[in-house]
Write a structure and sequence with these properties.
The chain contains two helices and eight strands; from the N terminus they run αβββββββαβ. It is an alpha+beta fold and 166 residues long. The mean pLDDT is 97. The structure holds zinc ion (ZN).
């Protein structure tokens, strides 16, 4: 169990595609616990992806249940290994932030509903349907596994990115 340091843009590891996890061994389980600990430590952020703590592996944690925007519609804590979006539907634009890009937020268009498949912490195959803020949070975290940040998704860096008031 450990809170890990979050890598910050423009760290090159954040631009690197991650490798699938082939076994849920002790090292993988420790990585998953570190992701949870790091998410909770950061004022209970809504998600962290493995590359943000320097592990180039396809794992994320998401939990929007503590957030005002997500508390009415969520699956609680999601630990997702090798996640893949099977279906997506609709469009939703939200102002996104990211612990790896602490000084900025940006307007991003994403699917409003998704069906996502993954292995849970026990290695069981799961398929869930997520919508609204939870769906947006999952899509944001999954982008990290392909080396993408929300900055890569905004349509215009001049008009859709905002400096946080400090
Ligand atoms: Zn992020």
């Amino acid at each position: 169990m450990a809170v890990r340091e979050i890598l910050l843009y423009p760290d090159p590891l954040l631009k690197t595609a991650c490798e699938p996890i082939d076994s849920l061994d002790d090292a993988t389980d420790a990585l998953l616990q570190d992701l949870i600990d790091t998410m909770v430590d950061a004022g209970h952020s809504v998600g962290v992806a493995a590359p943000q703590i320097g592990a180039l592996r396809r794992a994320v944690v998401v939990d929007v249940s503590k957030s005002k925007l997500g508390r009415d519609n969520n699956h609680g804590l999601l630990v997702m290994v090798n996640p893949e979006i099977l279906e997506s539907e609709g469009e939703k634009t939200m102002r996104e932030g990211c612990m790896s890009v602490p000084e900025y937020t940006g307007n991003v268009v994403r699917a409003e509903k998704i069906v996502v498949q993954f292995l849970d912490r026990q290695g069981c195959d799961q398929v869930i349907c997520a919508s609204g803020f939870e769906a947006v949070a999952i899509q944001h975290e999954l982008d990290h596994l392909d080396g993408l940040l929300f900055l890569d998704r905004v349509s215009n860096l001049k008009t859709d990115v905002f400096r946080r008031k400090g």
